[in-house]
Amino acid sequence: MGQGPDVLLLHGFVQASWAWRHNIEALSAHFTVHALCLPGFGWSDKPKAASFRLAEQARRVLLWMTHMNISRADLVGNSLGGALALQLAALEPDRVRRMVLVNPAGAGSYPMAWLARMQLPAWAPALALPGIPFGLKLGLRYGAYRKLPVDDDYMSHFLAPLGTHGAAHAALSVAQSYNADLSALERRIGGILQPTLIVRGGADRVMPDRIVTRIAEQLPHSRLVRFSESGHCPMEEEPGRFNRVCAGFLRDEAPGDDA
Q1: CB under 8 Å to 69, separation ≥6 — which residues?
Q2: Largest alpha-carbon pair distance within the chain?
Q3: Domain ranges of the chain
Q4: pTM (two decimals)
Q5: Residue 212 binned pLDDT confidence (cut-offs 50, 70, 90)
Q6: Is the pLDDT of residue 142 over 80?
Q7: What are phi and psi of 165, to 5 degrees?
Q8: Secondary structure letter of residue 142 according to DSSP
Q9: Distance CA 230, CA 103 (A)
């Protein structure tokens, strides 16, 4: 959607392209915007025999770019999508121009990483139990978001792709490799030279501040901006400010008051 340089929007764990619903139109005023449903998530294919490791996902995105005749793009990634953006830049630096990382996932010891270690793809049938949607709703309301109402309308959009065939197995497969993939990626971050803006939600309870700050310190050409009123997904919680800051950075404009 839109015209101008290509921008890829990369959603986070168990999310979908719907996560960027408040951003696509605004960014398309300056860019050709592609909001992807990554393999295994959203409305993409979820074959059980596939690998959903971070490096493999990055290779799939690169193949998709080639298929779409996109030689080079800007990347905007939230959470695990931020880690995927870094993985893409590490694998094929010439195909990534600039990056915006929104509370990017990183290696370390914290509740989400501990929980990921316990996940097994064989547990996929358990995710169909009646109490799971309510538990997810509580986690999103009190862990991920600060300003966004997690109501029935939100949950209907969030849960719909999770009910598709293979979604539970794919999510648990990604979780099981979460720690190993992020640890392997961390060893490469220092060599990623693209200009990078890191957006940090001040009320984020999913990704600890020390993890995001460490990623910012490791990237040679990064700048960190804090959205004090947001949790894990500032692009949903403060979309107006996020769209201005993101577009300004990708257009290489001087930082304004928002930044």
Answers
A1: none
A2: 50
A3: 6-250
A4: 0.94
A5: very high
A6: no
A7: -60, 130
A8: I
A9: 11
